[in-house]
Design brief:
The chain is mainly alpha-helical. 67% of the residues lie in helices and 3% in strands. A 3-stranded antiparallel β-sheet has the order 1-2-3. Helix 3 runs antiparallel to helix 10 and helix 8 packs across helix 15. It starts with a strand and ends in a 9-residue tail after the last helix. InterPro entries: AA_transpt_TM (IPR013057). This is Amino acid transporter. It is found in: Cell membrane.
Length: 476
């Protein structure tokens, strides 16, 4: 059934032109473009975090909410341009490529910071994949409940377990995980990006309809009111969590270098990546402002954590169903965007550690219905195991989404701010105590404070959830 070849002995076929088939590093020619990179970014950034932005703005109010959104859009775009410049090693324009975030840090900073980067990046990626399994199952359950209410009436109990849907999500991910690498993920990211636009637009449209229909929700310049909506302590904790939610809703630095490594050259990868970052962040900001601000106008200080659920499970039930299906499909693609760097890291490590092991290195080419598929037994076993483990974690710890806030707080500062700034200072040889050095450091320290504040808010929310924790008790 087809043919076999060894990854470690791949070479050029006789008569093949190296310049046409391979890049300057000997790897197969990259084919990524501004469109595919922008799709990857939008898929990674918009995420289901857009659904909580109405709640976040409700905690901060009209004055601080939009201002914080704009501030983090600028910070994210700025630091992403610094990180994009670090893709090539210091030196000539065509310096050696860095394939992962850890490689970038190793080239520019070195030392223990490489291990710190790996811990922050891969810890965050594992956390996101578990969190997405939970979130996707919640959206699937929402569809089932909506149909139940529509069929049996609004007073029906309609209690539905999340676990079968986590299993369905995992089964689909086992299949999608056999996509060999980031370079072949473009079509899935484009589908996922379209889905994110769809459910964001539905939420925005329903919010506009609610406001136009005469809904007079109470909104204020400072958000939730102490003594009316929340206690003084809750106001502080919720404001901390809201700032953290907004900061992490923009972060995609965990996968930026891996996305950049898919781009064809010329033009220079950093130039295209900066444009893609601008497209991704500006598009995201428009959607965030529309959904967050109009959602706050629709629901006021009582805005729910997921603003799509604020419209109820009832009518228009088919539109809410469609939005939740879009969320689930989007998360299918987003899971892969965040999982591929983990898959690649483990597979590259193992192939370097055991280059003679045929189970790890041999690729089997299968011809099915006229199409050629490359299958590797180690990839099949390892990726399937990973998906099953993330699904089990999601089932055992249904409050993991709150824990994800803590992981986000811990990884946001080093990955999105600290390393890009430090590598820029090292690469550009910015003089110590110069104006540029000072303002870069002030930006870095300010974001550190935001991360610490968000971490405190997440810990408080997590402590509250753990008190009510019942393993395998996740029913909607």
């Amino acid at each position: 059934m087809g043919m076999e070849y060894n990854k470690t002995t791949e070479g050029l076929e006789i008569g093949q032109n190296p310049s046409k088939s391979f890049d300057d590093d000997g790897r197969p020619k990259r084919t990524g473009t501004l469109l595919t990179a922008s799709a990857h970014i939008i898929t990674a950034v918009i995420g289901s975090g857009v659904l909580s932005l109405a709640w976040a703005i409700a905690q901060l109010g009209w004055a601080a909410g939009p201002a914080v959104l704009m501030a983090f859009s600028f910070i994210t775009y700025f630091t992403s341009t610094l990180l994009a410049d670090s893709y090539r090693c210091p030196g000539p324009i065509h310096g050696r490529r860095n394939y992962t975030y850890m490689d970038v840090v190793r080239s520019h900073l070195g030392g223990f910071k490489v291990q710190l980067c790996g811990l922050a990046q891969y810890g965050n990626l594992v956390g996101v994949t578990i969190g997405y399994t939970i979130t996707a199952s919640i959206s699937m359950v929402a569809v089932k409940r909506s149909n139940c209410f529509h069929t049996h009436g609004h007073d029906a109990e309609c209690k539905i377990s999340n676990y079968p849907f986590m299993g369905i999500f995992a089964e689909i991910q086992i299949i999608l995980s056999q996509i060999p690498n980031f370079h072949e993920l473009s079509w899935l990211s484009i589908v996922a990006a379209v889905m994110s636009f769809a459910y964001s637009s539905i939420g925005f449209g329903l919010s506009v309809a609610k406001v136009a229909g005469g809904a007079h929700a109470r909104t204020t310049l400072t958000g939730t009111t102490v003594g009316v909506d929340v206690s003084a302590a809750d106001k502080v904790w919720r404001s901390f969590q809201a700032i953290g939610d907004i900061a992490f809703a923009y972060a995609y630095s965990t996968v930026l270098i891996e996305i950049q490594d898919t781009l064809k050259s010329p033009p220079p990868e950093s130039k295209v990546m900066k444009k893609a970052s601008f497209v991704g962040v500006s598009t995201t900001t428009v959607f965030y402002m529309l959904c967050g601000c109009v959602g706050y106008a629709a629901f006021g200080n009582k805005a729910p954590g997921n603003f799509l659920t604020g419209f109820g499970f009832y009518e228009p039930f088919w539109l809410i169903d469609f939005a939740n299906v879009c969320i689930a499909v989007h998360l299918l693609g987003a899971y892969q965007v965040f999982a591929q760097p983990i898959f690649g890291f483990v597979e590259n490590y193992c192939s370097q550690k055991w280059p003679q092991n045929k189970f790890i290195t041999t690729e089997h080419t299968l011809n099915i219905l006229g199409y050629s598929y490359s299958m590797n037994m180690f990839r099949l076993v390892w990726r399937t195991t990973y998906v099953i483990l993330t699904a089990l974690m999601a089932m055992i710890f249904p409050f993991f989404n709150d824990f994800l806030g803590l992981i986000g707080a811990a990884s946001f500062y080093p990955l999105t701010v600290y390393f890009p700034i430090e590598m820029h200072i090292a690469q550009a040889k910015v003089p110590k105590y110069s104006f540029n050095w000072m303002w870069l450091k002030i930006l870095s320290w300010s974001c550190l404070i935001v991360s610490l504040i968000a971490a405190v808010g997440s810990i408080q929310g997590l402590a509250h959830d753990v008190k009510k924790f019942k393993p395998f008790g996740s029913n909607s």
